Amino acid sequence: MDAHPTGLNRRIFIVGGSNSILRNGWTYALADALGPDQPITNLSCGAASTLMGLFRFLGQIDQCRPGDVVIWEYALNDQNHCSSGQSWQVLVRYVKWMIRLCHDHGLLFLPLVLHQRSWHNSTPPTCPYYRALENLFQAAGIKAVSDEPIIRARIRGGQSIDKIFADPVHLRNGPKLMAAFARDIVAALSGLEPLGPKALQASIPQPGATLTLATDFAAGETLTFKNSIVNLIGHPIQQSPGLTCKGKLLGLIVVTGTARTALELKIGSQVIGPISTQAFPAHVSKQWILKQIAVEGQFPKTPILAEGAITIRTATPRWRRPYVQNTYVWSPVKPGQNGAETRPSVVAALIETGVPHHYEPPKLLARIKLKLRNTLRRLANR
Q1: Each residue of 264-309: pLDDT tens digit?
Q2: How far is Cα 141 from Cα 159, in angstroms, rounded to an integer?
Q3: CB atoms within 10 A of CB 186
Q4: Considering only the top CATH level, what class is 12-202?
Q5: Cα separation of 179 and 32, whole Å?
Q6: Distance between CA atoms of 129 and 328, rounded to whole angstroms?
Q7: All structural domains of the chain with their residue ranges
Q8: This model's pTM is above 0.85
């Protein structure tokens, strides 16, 4: 990898899911391969999609310098959300925004595309998300690092898939396997080229398009959430924090726990929700977890446009169960459950401006499938 114009190595920013924060995983192997003088900032956050990656990246983008590298690893997570009912078109748009932000700030972009264990068990299934992702990278002139050559070589060599994956979505952190990922990434870094006009045209091409973090909340109580990864200010949802912004609402970033809680959004005369904020218990290791709530393409009235104030308030579902997005549940709280005392709080909203709002409602069959999937999920969470 060429030297940074300042004489230092280009800094690397990693934006990915839980495989990117796995102890002794590929990020550790990459750091070992590049040596102690290579600055690496890991912004990864698990149990989320590229929407969370955009939040983490936008929070650090002022620290990036032209020529720095962004390694994106959210494909496996995005596909998981796609399988759970989220629109693949919306998920791919998140990736387009990553490319656009990197282009505008002079950053190099390297995708690391991982797949779930089931993908490698047999002939890969037809998947609209991965197909669209491949088409996007091809149109943008972006070369991705894929796990397929590494894993297929091991399977051909007689290695069991269960020796490669610890569970359906997480790789084992065997040193030889992780070193193979590091070698492929280092090789890709050495030939990485700046994003050109093709990348801009393939991503979000509108000249005035912006994606911002809206944090202009009305004055009120705030809570601090801090761990080894993040240091955040949250606004308790039970106090109905008002947020001033203008544009299309893509999603919210919240801190929540395992209490059976829900929220709703009030934008003008429109009320959206209720939406579960009860985190999947297995994901909450201590008292709270950083989560996303996707808005774009999730609700009947889309796009959701804000022209001033958004009120985010607690909802008490009575006659209907709330929307339960991927990695959330709606179930009774068990005694002593981690995170049961956490007050859900909103941290930021992702707001898009300068992009025409074209939305095609799902076709009848797609709507029926989505409604059936959501109904089955709600029944399973009773």
Answers
A1: 999 988 899 999 999 999 899 889 999 999 999 888 766 788 888 8
A2: 34
A3: 15
A4: alpha beta
A5: 9
A6: 22
A7: 12-202, 210-380
A8: yes
